[in-house]
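Lecture notes, unit on protein representations.

Consider one protein chain, 332 amino acids long.
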Amino acid sequence: MGAQLVDRFGRIATDLRISLTDRCNLRCSYCMPPEGLPWLPSPDVLTDDEVVRLTGVAIRLLGVREVRFTGGEPLIRRGLVDIVRRTSQLDPRPEISLTTNGIGLTRLAGPLREAGLDRINVSLDSLSTETFRELTRRDRWTDVVDGLAAAEGAGLTPVKVNAVLMRGVNETEAPDLLAWCLERGYELRFIEQMPLDAHHRWSRSVMVTADEILERLRERFDLTPADPRQRGSAPAESFLVDGGPARVGIIASVTRPFCGDCDRVRLTADGQVRNCLFAREESDLRGALRAGADDADLARRWRAAVATKQPGHGIDDPTFLQPTRPMSAIGG
C-alpha cells in the first residue's frame, strides 16, 4: 500500500463514498425541484470498469477500507450488482455499504447480499403515505417499506433508516418513526437538513435541529448518550433508547459539526474527487484515467486532491456558499 489520503490537518480518509448516478426516481423537496434536474450525459458518467478500477486504486494504494455506493439513486444503476460483486473481490476486501431510497430493494436485496453487500441505509422520512407523497412528490411509500423488509430478509442487518425532519411537514413524527423502527429492529438515524438542495433555498428556520429532535424523542423515550469513544469518526451521535441495547442516531452536520474527525472522501458519478461534502472545488480523475494514466498517477492525483481539504465545512461562516452541485449530484 502506498501513502494514505492525508490532509494538512492530519485527518486520514479511509471511507470512500462513490456516487454511481445523479439520477433519481423520487423528487424529495429538500433535494431537487419537482421537474427534476438536467442529468449528466451518459458519456460523462464513469463506466462500471472505471468505477471498479478507481475503487481498486483507493483500496490498494491509498488505504481506503470502507466503500459506500450512493447516488442519486444507486439502485437504478444497471450494473450495480456486478459493481458490488467486483468490489467485494478486491484485495484487501473493503466493507461495502449502500445508501438508497429503497425503491427496487424487493428485487435487488437478495442479489446485492449475495454479491457481497454488507450494510444498507434506506431513507424514510414519514410513516404517513400522504406526507411521504408531499415530501417526495411520488406515491411510493409502500415500495420503500417493502424494500426495508426485503433488506431485513436478505440479511442486510442491522437495517439502518435515515430520516430528515422538516418544520411544518414531518417534525412531529420523530417519536413515531423511532417506535416504528424499534418494533422492526431497524436502526434509525435522524439527519439535520443540510444546505445541499438544488434550488439553494435552505434556511435554518426550516431545519429541525438535533436539540429539537432530542427534545421530541424524550417526550416518549429515555435517551442516554452512548460512550463517545465508540463513535470514532462516525457521523452519527448515538443514544441508547430506554437503557439499550437499541439505539438511535443523530447526524447534526449543521449544529454539531464533526469535521475534525472526518475520514470521508467522495467520488462523483462523473469521476471528480470531492474532499468535503460542501467543497466548491473538485479534482478530475476521469480525464486522467481516460487519457491513459496508470494507477500510480491516479493515486498521486487523488492524494493531492485530499491534501487541500479545509478544516471544516464553514456553514456558520458569513461567507459560506453552497456547493454548485446539489446533494443528488454529489452522493451522500
